[in-house]
Structure formats: structure tokens, C-alpha cells
Records
---
Amino acid sequence: MFLELIAVFIAGFAGAGAMMLLGKISGGRLPKWLVPVGAGAAMLIAGISSEYSWFSRTSGNLPEGIEIAETGESKALWRPWTYVFPMTNRFVAADTGNMQTNSETDGLYLVDLYFFGRWRAVQVVEVMVDCNGHRRADPVLGDGSDPLWRDVGPQDSVVKTVCKEG
């Protein structure tokens, strides 16, 4: 987050510098108010670019064996461009490279799910997936008690991702 703030400030200086250079090249015929406008526009573009590139940067740095199961897009009133181009600001990834199979039940897997969110810490949840029954066991209390089985169907993104690999 700090590095992105620094990048926005550098973009602002570059935008102001570019407008000052254009003013110098034009022989002083450009209005002076274009310098702060250029700085603001460059800062806005840098911020928007950082927001939109977050998903590709983060997912591109995932280690081998971690598959993206689901993505979430957001639209916001204070970001009107997101209604035209929605922004991915969260996703769920399954660690299919390290999932464990159940030796007693065929098609039952234990897998770690990673929940990534823009400006949020990564959360890890261990779930069981029953590929034969198309269901998923979500932890209820996190204290080792019995999980809650949910019939989610074969189209569930986590079930599809895990069962494709399993």
C-alpha cells in the first residue's frame, strides 16, 4: 500500500513535469492551470491502473498448485468507470497441489482455500470436498467440532476446481 502511494505521487510529479515541458515547448502559450490538472490526471490514472492490475499481479504470483476457484467483481458509485469495466477486488484460490485424499472414502478431499481481498489480509480455511456427492464441508466453529455439510451441486466453483484436480 505504501509503495502504491509513492507510485501515485511520482506519477503526479511526472504529470506536472510533462505539462511544464509542454508549456515550455509551446513558448508559454499553454495556461498555467494545466500543470496541476496534468498532475491530478496522472495521479488518478496511476491509482486506477493500480486497482485494476491488482488481480493479475496477485494471481500471477501464486505458487504452482494453487488454482483460482472464484473471483468477485465490484462496482461503486464513487468509481463510475467500474459500471463499464467492473474491477476484480477479491478471489478464492484452492491449494490443489497439496490437497489430501481420504483413504477410507473415495472422492473425499481436504483442501486449503485462500481468500484474497484488495487491502485485506489473506485468510486460509480448510474445507472438505465430496466430489461424488457434490457437497462441501465448511468449518462451523473452528474448534475441531463436526463440520457443516452443504449440498452445493456440481456447479459450485470450489467443488469444480477441487474435483477437476482430484
---
Amino acid sequence: MNLNGDIIIIEDDADDRDVLVEVFDDVLNKYGYTNKVVLIDDSTKVIDYLKGTTSSPFLIISDINMPKLDGFALRELIFQDQELNDKCIPYVFLTTSGDNTEFMKKAYGLSIQGYFTKPNDYAEYEGLISDMVRYWKVAKIANRI
């Protein structure tokens, strides 16, 4: 993981992507972070992106409910790929599925590093993203560059 690496957001919903771009712009500017936000709207393209990029991403934030390849299946593919797994990229879910205990158990069974509900309030969204990014900026990761 690279502290200044890309933040990969996997989100199929255009409205949610727009909100995330705005929130991340505000948070990154507020704290002076230089991470680039990369939006991927089709989860089937994530593995190719991760294998094709020369940079080491900072964080992956994924929706769960997506067509073609849901967030669980995507996480499993990344987790089972030794090359990608060795990059130690934190993987968190950001979902509208909220307090779905079945989803949470399944998610943590896939060794994710966080499960968060998408807030409805902008200030709460900004606070959540701010906390998430700041946490990973100071967390100890085996492959941190």
C-alpha cells in the first residue's frame, strides 16, 4: 500500500459516484492529501485495472450490490489472487445494506478491513470518509511503501 496511492472506488450507481467524488474532493483538500480517486463503475473491470496499474493503490472502497459481479465475488477474486493479495491493499465495503447481519458475516469472512453504511447526510458522509482515510494513513501495513 502506498500512502499517496490511488483510492479505488467501485460503484455502479451514478448518483452515488457523484456524491463520493464531491465528498472525497472535500476531504482530500481539507487535509492536503494528494491521493487520486479512481472511479470504476463496472466491477468486472477491477481485476484488470489492479493488475495493469503500475502504482500501488492506497485503499479500495467497494459497493456490494452490483450487477454482473457483486462486491463479495469481487473481493473473493482479489483475495484468491496471490499477486493482488500480496499488495495488502485495504478493502472496505461502503453499502446501503446497512445492518444486514448476513452480509456483515459474509463480508468479514472474506477478510475485508471494514464494513460501512452509506450515510444520507452529507456532513456524516464527509466525517465517515475523513475517518476512513485518516485511519489508513496511520495504520501499519506490511507492504507500505
